[in-house]
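Bumping with the actual sequence this time:
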Amino acid sequence: MNTLIIAVLSFVGFIVAYHTYGKWLARKIFGLDAEATVPSQELRDDVDYVPTKKEIIFGHHFTSIAGTGPIVGPAIAVFWGWLPALLWVVLGSVFIGAVHDFGALVVSLRNRGQSVGEVAGRMIGPRAKFLFLFVLFMGLTIVLAIFGLVIALIFSYYPESVLSVWIEIPLAIAIGIWIYRRGGNILVPSIVALGIMYIGMALGAYVLPIDLGQWFGIPLLGQTYLNVVVIWTLVLFVYCFIASVLPVWTLLQPRDFINSHELVLALLLLILGLAVAGFTGRADLVASAPPVASDIPPDAPPIWPFLFITIACGAVSGFHCMVSSGTSSKQVSSEGDAQYVGYGAMLLEGGLAVIVILACCAGIGMGIFNRTGTGANYAFEPIVKAESAAPVINHDAWKARYAIKTETNTDGTTKVVSGWASHGLKAKVSAFVDGGGNFLASLGIPLKMAISIMAVLVASFAATTLDTATRLQRYVIFELAQTVNIKPLTNRYIATALALVLAAAVALLQGPSGPGSGGLTLWPLFGATNQLLAGLAFMVIVFYLLRRNKPIWFAFLPMVVMLIMPGWAMLHQMFNPATGWLFTGKYLLFGFGVAVEALQIWMIVEGVIAWRHARGNYPELPPLETVTAD
């Protein structure tokens, strides 16, 4: 029962926050004006700048910021216990993450849809613009590389998800043409498309799992480029090139609207399954996993500050400022929609992260099954065989999932012998998929179908983030090219190709398990770099408010937190004597870390210099230019 109570209280808290704190920000701080001219109207080109109904733009915005971030982060963080993770998700999303996303959206709306990097040049200084854009460029390169690999791993480990994810693409294009060329309604066709996707999930689970490894006799990862992860990664990048140069109404908006329905339905099923499991006693958060874990492996990073960079998208994420100011601000049709899109979408993502925490603890603790085999060749074996109808809560199932194993010393005491490094990325994603599958199974949904639903949910959201990030990287390259006057890179095809070539080069780095496994080693960079970006975005928001003589405390305090915590974590990762990148020969990671820390410090120095003359000194926008990205 306590599992259900925690879920209900968290969602009620999010609703109350939206109608109190969010409304205060919208009215008293940002002063949203529904009659103000917005970029989608002023610069309309029907490619990137497209006035869009708030329900559709909410779907795009939410699915773009969600991805695998609110899934992987909490799935890792519950290693320290579910209580710290839950508190950071709820409080962080309300007072930091939603403020960050909302603020970045409003600032961009009032600066012709410019990215926060471009706005930094006017709010802080010309050098700050170049520094911020370069941080964005580095961050997006890592995002593209990592998310491409994450989706490739999902397709490899859950081949039942492939068919449904790819079916969605032609369906979304057909809906886009129907709406914007024929004036049709989006709601009914998008629901029909979702129904077809569920048929695809069933076909993938029982009839046609697309397992490239089994089909072509190639390994998941291997010492040559002929392996499943590499092939899927390249296919995904080719798709991203096509998707990100098309007008947003063609694929981006309708697909994201379908995905928003998919998430709402999946969340409802998860909550219903959680309720049934909670009432019957099969899901018990407290019995399944410790509120605060005590048996932490000695090589694991400390909870302070790593909790704050491990859970990013579920609480606050720098990547969100790129979506708010990169694509969403170019499609919002009225300032009055900004709270609904910016603040509301982040709270819904916080709700998703809460469900992930419960699935990875209470769901795994239900101990219904253990997945054996890989690819399409898998089966379910009961972890606990109950002798009666009494519910069985299996704490060991959660411990096994997170590889927390102990052995007895000669003096009778115990010691933890598992290693933090043994926790693979695949295990984190599968913790949510399998735990969520347990919740759905409580509703009588067959386990194979339940797992297929959860795997498609993860893969489709990650794919949304991947091609949105490609479009965002194109904007960043365009703005950098304008800054340093490199004319060819202002072409959208050349800029997109450059973004994906660089991401592919990073993703397919040679590693211990062959090409592709090297890119996965960059995962530790994502958390700290992403959260440092959030701190820098808060800096731009603070300067925007300062120059307009507005209160800044509600953004200044989160800015300080999001500059200190990720910077502290990055330094620990670089210089810790036992596990630091410098001392363990991980020089690529160390080099990235040095560059990111140097850019952050330089940006802070620029802010300190500009602070003295910023109050009340708001620079007006220059005359509208006729040159836009083609």
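The tokens above came from a reply further down the thread. Residues 241 and 496 are 6 Å apart (CA to CA).
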